[in-house]
Amino acid sequence: MLKEFEEKRGDREVENLFAILEKLTDIKDTQLEKVEKASSTALPVLAEKLNQALQLSEEIEADYLELQKKSKQKLAENKEKRQQEWDQFIDDMNFKCQRIDNTFEEKEEELRDLYADLKHNTAEESDNEGKGVDKNETFNSESKDDDSSKNSRDKPSKEKLGKMAETKENFLVTSDLDWLYNYIKCRRNEGDKNIPYLHTLLTGVHVDVPENEVLKRNPVLEARCVKLRAQQEAREYRKMTKGVDNVRMRFPEETISYQLKQVNRQLIAVGQFIISIFAGFLFGFRGVEWMVGNLDFGFRLLLGVMCALVIALAEIYFLAKRLNEELSAPETIQLGGPPKFAEDEKRYENNKKLFKKEHQD
């Protein structure tokens, strides 16, 4: 048994060795040439691609270094430019501040000259008043001398001033004051410093302001206001004398039972409204079918809705009419007093049952 196993094992090993030898021989004879041919064709291409990749990497590195160099140079240029702009901004601000200071000094000098001229003019006016010289007449004479040099736009105002001078009292309207202000401004701009200012000429004048038109009050509104005031006074009087009159010691509106009755009335009205609508719908939905026979469901539903709608409109009409009758009663009658402000007392004779207590003074 063992001997047979060894023989079989030796045979398998020999067969395996021969198979390996055959494969090696086959590879040596056939596959080796194919590998040599494939390597001879593929390796140069691979080497070329590797060289190209190496060249690209070198170019990328060079571009990166160049870009980094340019960015550093640009940052330096921008920094220098910002520094120059900042220096220029500081110089401009200093120049503007200096110009503002100079302008302020010039304005201050002009104000000093203006107040000096004003002081000089006031001194001259006081001297002229002491001598009995009228400043307004002097100004009018100067304006008459300059009429030939003024344009046609100023002539109507001068004629108006001449016409007003003939009347007992001289009045100047706003258009005349505008013309006078423009004339004084023009003369002072020409260099004539002796012309007084407008406020100096208008010192001591009387201003007449037209009164507003008084509108009459609407008589209907006035009558309505009188009626409302009378009702308010009557309400306050009844409230004030409530503790004196034992009949009106306690109005029914102030009791809880009255409030509960009012709530019950409202609830009953709402309940009647809902029940009436439901009964109308039931009549149209079922009653017609019981009287006529079998009908379609949609047709029966339409009949029910129509009947309910008609009954709802009728109920709303009567409910609104009833509320209108209750609300149309005069306020004094509702409070238990005499119908002082009722326009038509006969209208409320049938509604006396609503008012349990009447005023008994």
UniProtKB/TrEMBL annotation:
Entry GO CC: BLOC-1 complex; endoplasmic reticulum membrane; transport vesicle
Pfam families referenced in this protein's UniProt entry, alphabetically: Muted, Vma12
Predominant cellular place of this UniProt entry's protein: endoplasmic reticulum
GO biological process terms on file: vacuolar proton-transporting V-type ATPase complex assembly
Top-level taxonomic group: Eukaryota
Membrane-traversing stretches: 267-285, 297-320
Keyword presence, Membrane: yes
Location in the cell: Endoplasmic reticulum membrane
Family that this chain belongs to: Belongs to the BLOC1S5 family.
Name this polypeptide is given: Biogenesis of lysosome-related organelles complex 1 subunit 5
Organism: Danaus plexippus plexippus
Taxonomic classification: Eukaryota, Metazoa, Ecdysozoa, Arthropoda, Hexapoda
